[in-house]
């Protein structure tokens, strides 16, 4: 998983996330010797250049690389970018490169960070399509072929993404399903504006599923160094401002959520920083967008309100963690971004909690739960005595 995905605001949770009970996680098969090369049935295959940044993930690297080499229906190249890992990444990376001429291994002499590493990969790419795949994530069979098919069929699509399976720290598996289950076709094309509105203030795209036209990626440029934790989100918005976006309703990749993941814990001082980066992502979108998008005041207001609501949600989390200064700072940010939220229900609820204070608020919630439980038991008892069903 990328460094960006290691924050609670950047995990792909804006769509539906469904637990998959008792599901065995698919593994990447080693079919590298059977991989299709240049043609299939007389049709020239699209080449997908996959960049795999790696820092301290030697133990995952082989599975990640082999998941790319085993893809069918496309011609692939892999660049492993070792960002000066202190583990045995050099040993694993060199071995993988020596076994398959489609794999190249590079090692940085000093740690450059993920943004510089991503941009080095973009500079290297020269195929039809491009994918950034973190070394701890891996592709599922057929994912690149499906993306290539969609983008061959719809030339106006500049980026394609899909569902992802999430390997949880406890061994369970859940699914990131960005568009949910409602009337979503197996392959669907969204206009850039539709995608931007669907994304709102969240990162809609599971990063290991995002396949981009290389020419478009080169046109819009690389990741912004000033947005280390909102870089993916800003990139998807930037691409969508220039092209349509395709969605594939299939499990395209697996990404791992680690026990150290910031999304699994409270990280007070970083919340406001992440929110500020999201605002900068919106500012960047409108600064370089087409004239029609720059003038779209309804879209600006919509995104501001989405970001403000996200901020109020995070302020509530800070309050619940008894971090009152952070909650107050985030609330101020929310109202600066979207003043119309001052009289919204989430803001009024937060103001009520702040007035009462966390200790008294939790005491009231405890009393309310006990009262609700008593009322429920009384209804059940009354229904049982009259022979009726609760709720009838």
From TrEMBL:
<dbReference type="GO" id="GO:0016740">
    <property type="term" value="F:transferase activity"/>
</dbReference>
<dbReference type="InterPro" id="IPR050834">
    <property type="entry name" value="Glycosyltransf_2"/>
</dbReference>
<dbReference type="InterPro" id="IPR029044">
    <property type="entry name" value="Nucleotide-diphossugar_trans"/>
</dbReference>
<dbReference type="InterPro" id="IPR001173">
    <property type="entry name" value="Glyco_trans_2-like"/>
</dbReference>
<keyword id="KW-0808">Transferase</keyword>
<dbReference type="Pfam" id="PF00535">
    <property type="entry name" value="Glycos_transf_2"/>
</dbReference>
<feature type="region of interest" description="Disordered">
    <location>
        <begin position="1"/>
        <end position="28"/>
    </location>
</feature>
<feature type="domain" description="Glycosyltransferase 2-like">
    <location>
        <begin position="50"/>
        <end position="167"/>
    </location>
</feature>
<protein>
    <submittedName>
        <fullName>Glycosyltransferase involved in cell wall biosynthesis</fullName>
    </submittedName>
</protein>
<feature type="compositionally biased region" description="Polar residues">
    <location>
        <begin position="1"/>
        <end position="24"/>
    </location>
</feature>
């Amino acid at each position: 998983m990328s460094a960006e995905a290691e924050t609670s605001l950047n995990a792909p949770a804006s769509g539906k996330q469904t637990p998959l009970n008792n599901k065995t996680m698919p593994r990447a098969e080693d079919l590298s010797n059977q991989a299709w090369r240049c043609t299939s049935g007389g049709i020239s295959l699209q080449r997908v250049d996959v960049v795999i940044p790696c820092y301290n993930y030697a133990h995952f690297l082989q599975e990640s690389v082999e998941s790319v080499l085993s893809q069918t229906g496309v011609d692939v190249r892999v660049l492993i970018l070792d960002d000066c890992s202190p583990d045995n990444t050099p040993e694993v990376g060199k071995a993988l490169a020596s076994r398959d001429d489609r794999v190249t291994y590079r090692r940085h002499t000093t740690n450059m960070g993920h943004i510089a590493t991503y941009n080095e990969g973009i500079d290297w790419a020269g195929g039809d399509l491009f994918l950034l795949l973190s070394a701890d994530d891996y592709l599922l069979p057929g994912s690149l072929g499906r993306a290539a098919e969609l983008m061959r069929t719809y030339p106006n699509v500049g980026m394609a993404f899909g569902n992802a399976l999430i390997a949880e720290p406890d061994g369970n598996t859940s699914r990131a399903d960005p568009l949910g289950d409602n009337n979503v076709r197996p392959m669907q094309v969204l206009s850039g504006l539709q995608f931007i509105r669907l994304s709102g203030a969240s990162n809609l795209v599971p990063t290991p599923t995002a396949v981009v036209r290389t020419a478009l990626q080169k046109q819009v440029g690389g990741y912004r160094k000033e947005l280390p934790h909102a870089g993916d989100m800003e990139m998807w918005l930037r691409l969508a401002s220039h092209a349509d976006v395709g969605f594939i309703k299939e499990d395209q990749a697996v990404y791992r959520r680690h026990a150290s993941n910031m999304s699994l814990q409270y990280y007070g001082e970083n919340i406001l920083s992440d929110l500020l980066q999201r605002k900068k992502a919106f500012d960047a979108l409108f600064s370089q967008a087409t004239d029609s998008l720059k003038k779209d005041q309804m879209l600006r207001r919509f995104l501001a309100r989405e970001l403000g609501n996200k901020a109020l949600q995070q302020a509530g989390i800070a309050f619940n963690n008894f971090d009152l200064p952070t909650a107050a700072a985030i609330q101020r940010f929310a109202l600066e971004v979207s003043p119309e939220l001052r009289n919204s229900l989430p803001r009024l609820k937060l103001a009520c909690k702040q007035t009462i204070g966390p200790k008294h608020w939790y005491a009231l919630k405890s009393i309310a739960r006990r009262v609700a439980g008593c009322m429920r038991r009384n209804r059940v008892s009354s229904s049982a005595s009259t022979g009726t069903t609760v709720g009838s």
